[in-house]
Amino acid sequence: MKRLTAACAASLLATTAFAQPDPTDWDAVLEEARGQTVYWNAWGGSTTTNDFIAWVGDRVAEEHGVILKHVKLTDTADAVARVLAEQQAGTNEGGAIDIIWINGENFASMKRQDLLFGPFAEDLPNWQYVDTEGKTVQTDFTIPTEGYESPWAMAQVVFMYDTADIDTPLPSMDAILEWAQAHPGRFTYPQPPDFLGATFLKQALLDLVEDPAPLMEPATPETFAKVSAPVWDFLEELTPNLWREGETYPQSGPQQIQLLNDDEIDLAISFSPGEASTAISNFELPDTVRTFVLDKGTLGNASYLAIPYNANAAAGAMVVANFILSPEAQAHGLDPLNLGYGTVLDMDKLSDDQKAAFDAIDLGIATLTPAELGTALPEPHPSWMEMLETEWTARYGVQ
Prior knowledge:
Elements: H1 6-19, H2 26-33, E1 37-43, H3 47-64, E2 67-73, H4 76-88, E3 99-102, H5 104-112, E4 139-140, E5 143-144, E6 149-156, E7 158-162, H6 173-182, H7 195-208, H8 221-227, H9 229-238, H10 253-261, E8 267-270, H11 275-281, E9 289-292, E10 300-306, H12 314-324, H13 327-334, H14 352-359, H15 370-373, H16 382-396
Helix pairs in contact: 2-12, 3-12, 7-16, 13-14
């Protein structure tokens, strides 16, 4: 076999890129997608999330003949690393991953390394319903998405607490520290770099700093050392008062919920305002659990779907992303009996019948109203999360 010249190789790459489906020609996308198998790489640590993905699979198979396979991840970075390895090996088509549930530093990494298909998101037919004014759905941890990822759920930090043990919500991180010192062993958080554990560190950072403006810019060693100092002072006092004196941590959010259900802790962090109600309805938490946000506000962001540049089934992946933006799927996901994730849609853009489906949802006894949640705080630049994880591991990492 003759070797390809550099010019031929470049031409082949260009042909491969050109061969990917055009999101502006939706009829052609639907035709190409029919019969495709889409491998969705997504965190697999939550039964309700897994069930939602399975439900999406049933619906896209029924409507569009697309077969959806959930590849369950423990760390999204593993999927990013696989796409990067394929790129480095020259696998520029027929990749193993068709769509990824992604956020923050992982999106920034893929975008920086040209690992993404698109732009496609704002050409999806159901983009017409997305709330681009009231929700942060076009930036991801300060990074403009530019159509390279499609939002599918809104999240905001809440703290779950058992009212049988805690009388009133705690208004700040300092108040959480004071409560933990008075009730040692009754609080913990997932071990970073678990996403929820890293979120706790970012929430502490936002609540404890006087000026959050530097967090919106890339961190440098100098700015990180100065701005994050209050977090490490806070953790020095908090850690000895954590569950098992901070010598071990739950490895995930569901493990943390199990501790709350087993009455080993009284307070836990969540990135889903409806998670407590969902857990109560599934008999995974006592019905005395409620949620609160801090007085200064809590972190909020969108969960996104991205398609790798070399996806084998990019058309099918776009069909999945588009279906998840449908009022039907968004209402299904909002219902705490199913998932309890916030919607990315603008209710004013829906028909009366579509809005009625949302109005009929009982958000659950532990779910705060949008007014009670308040305005979500923006995510810091991804570099802050990376440095927080590294520094936390150096100081408190459990081997």
